[in-house]
Every structure is written in C-alpha cells, then in structure tokens.
Amino acid sequence: MASRWFYRVFDQEMGPVGFQDLVEMVRAGTLTEKDRVRRESGEEWIAPREVIGLFRAAQVEPATAKAPEPESRPRPTEGKSHPPEDIAPAPLPRRRRRRTVPHLGARGWVAAGLVLVVVAIVGYELWSHRKSRVFPKSVLGRPRPVDRESREAILGPRSKVPSIPGLKEGKPTPIPGLEAIDPGYSPCLTPDLRTIVFAAMYDRVADYDLYISTRDDVSKPFAPPKVIKSCQSKELEAFPTLSPDALELMFVRGFSQPRFYHSRRASVSDDFGEPAVWPVNEHGIAKPYLHRPQFIDRMHLTFCIVNLADDTRTIFTVERRDANSVFGPLQKVRMTDAWPPYFFCDNGLRAYCHSPDGVFFSNRRAKSHPYGPPLPILDPAVTGTMDGPFWLTPQEDAIFYVSTGPGKKPDLGPDDKGRKLWMVRF
C-alpha cells in the first residue's frame, strides 16, 4: 500500500496526502526544509530531507541523451559522374595490415551493453544522491501560489456560492460600473459588497478626493460615483475604510504630513458629516507617517505607521467598547517578518499583502500569537502590478484592487493615468 503522510506548514497540520503529493509540493516550493512531515501510521515529525527518496524524486529529470545516428553512406556529389555499379573501381594502394579487434559476436556485444547500462545507473544514483541534499528550487524562480488543498486546510473549506456571482477564478475583471475611473486608488467596500468608497482624481485640479457608489444587488454594476463633499478639500484624501454598517468613515488627509480623519452619518441614505481629526498619540515613533487604516469590525481598527527615519513599518490596533465610545490605547500587532500587510480578515487570524512577487497571506492560531511568514496565493502575471491597498471579501475568495491591468507595464504617465479598479477571484 502506498505511504500516506501528514505535513505541517507554519504550525498548521494538513493531510493525509500521498508520497507523490509531497514530491509535487517540494518541486513547487510549497514544502520547504523548515516544514515537518510524518507518516500516517507514525507520530514522529521529521524534516522533509529525512524522507528517503523525496528530494530525489522532486528533482527535474535530466533530459535523456539522444543516441547518435549511425553514419550514413556518403551521397554522390552533385555535378560529378560516378561509375556504374557493375564496373569495378580502381584498386587502392596497398597498406600495411593493422591488428584488428577480435570480433566479439552477438553475445559479447550484449554483455558489453549491460555493463555500460549498470555503470550509467550507478553513476546517476551517486549523482542524484548528492544532488538530493540540496532542496530543489521552484521552477519559476519565485514561490508558486499555495495549492487549493493546502489553502483550504488553513482557511477552511470554501463556500460553494462565491462572493461575486459570475466572476471567474483567476480572471481579473474591471469593477462593473467603475470601468471609466482612471486614476483611482485604495478601494474599500462594505461586507455586503453593495457600497464602495475609493479615492479618485476627476477634475485634475484638486488632488485625490473620496467618492462613494452603491448598488442594489451584488450581481449589478455600481451606480455613477459621487464625491463625498463633506470630506472634500484641496489636500489629498485617500486610504478610506468603512465600518461594517457603512455609518462611519475613516480616511487619511494630507501628503507630506498625513493625519487620520473620522466622519459619521445617521443612516446609509444620509451624507457623511464634517470629518474630525482622529489623533494618534503615544506611538513612540520618531518620524511617523500615518496610512492604511482598516475597520476589522465595529469595535476594532488597525492602521500602519511608517518611521521615516529608518523606513520601518509598525502595525497597530485599537479597540473600543461600543460604536459611540472612543478607541483605547494603541497595541502593536506582532509580525514574524517585517512585511507590510494591506488587509486583515474580520477574525484577525489572517493578514494579506502584495509585492512584486504577487499576493501573499499570513496565518496565526490565535490573536495572542504572531503572524507566520507569508504564503503566496496569487501570481502577478494573473493580477498585473498592484498599486496601494486592496480590499478582501469576507469569504476571502476575491480581491478588489488598483492596477494598470494584467500584462501592462506599471507606467502611470501624466496625471497618474493607469490606476484602474479591478477585482479578481482566487
């Protein structure tokens, strides 16, 4: 019976899978030397390198050398006459007879061939055994996206009904109703996907302002967007985030010295009121640069502060008792690696980011634990180059983002042209 294995990636136990599945994971780069595996029938966790034959099987098989073709009979040169076959050619000059190799016979040649085969097999085994000590790298030269089985083992099984009806997996699509927006920036939606707020520069006179658009159903396009007049100014407004009930709006105003602003409204049919400065104190950062706020839920808000002195990023979260109370003191979010997350899921157990290598997510077992190293889930060849923050659906199956588009160079050109609003299911 074929062996079956469990594997543990970033403290997440998954499986069982077959030996060939482990081979494919090693070859794709999703199972590394830092991970651990164990047999289904055993309890001891071991490093993948200790599994006999695993690395060797994951190596790319060398191309089989093509045997040289036997020499063909020389062809007559064009333009020259040749004697008929029934006329004997002129006798060659006599040469001293050389000692020739004795004729081996059919059995001799078979034996010699077998010896050569055995030597070749032994040589390849020695070579591959030495090569197997080095963990194979991904064929693409960069981490491949986590396969569906491993991703669902971490995220849990997906809903059979996608968040966005008709949106095909791995095929980016412009956000319906907002195809003409260019430039746009930092889209944010409500959990029901019926309200969207984003930054845009329509008139080319003032800087980015905040716009809002709604729709009655997820399957329909958004209505023409309207500027949020109460939040409009001559400065830059960007990085908006909506509370889940769409009654609160937090955003960033200013470019050289940005500040957080907070605005409310009584109902979803009303306009947002005049925003007020939301002060951020006691962060202990020498040269702070505020950006990327996000409502995780009504009671929790997270944001990022960049220290311009050394270009380090620190993620903070704040909490409040109810929607009418103020947020409490700042708490640092523990990150294993110094990478800037762009979005946190509503239960706070997963964080997402993007880089030139694609979209990544990081997982943790509990809110008191640090996030683990990021795992790739989307290739940049699929999404195109992303620009700025993105927004993730509550089912964690689709991303709304800004990009020049798949296959296009990230050259914004004049007036920031080239920032369009997209969505992609993964």
What does this structure look like?
With 426 residues, the protein is α+β, with helices and mostly antiparallel strands. It folds into 2 domains: 4-62, Dna Ligase, domain 1 (2-Layer Sandwich); 148-425, Tachylectin-2, Chain A (5 Propeller). The protein is built from 5 helices and 23 strands. It has helices spanning 19-28, 54-58, 105-131, 148-155, 380-383, and strands spanning 4-9, 12-18, 36-39, 173-174, 184-189, 195-200, 209-214, 226-227, 237-242, 248-253, 259-264, 276-277, 288-297, 300-307, 312-319, 331-332, 343-344, 350-355, 358-363, 375-378, 391-392, 398-403, 420-425. The protein has a 4-stranded antiparallel β-sheet, with no helix packed on it. The protein has a 4-stranded antiparallel β-sheet with strand order 5-6-7-8, with no helix packed on it. The protein has a 4-stranded antiparallel β-sheet with strand order 9-10-11-12, with no helix packed on it. A hairpin with an 8-residue loop joins β6 and β7. The longest helix has 27 residues, at 105-131. The protein is elongated and about 100 Å long. The model is unreliable at 60-101 and 127-141 (pLDDT under 50).
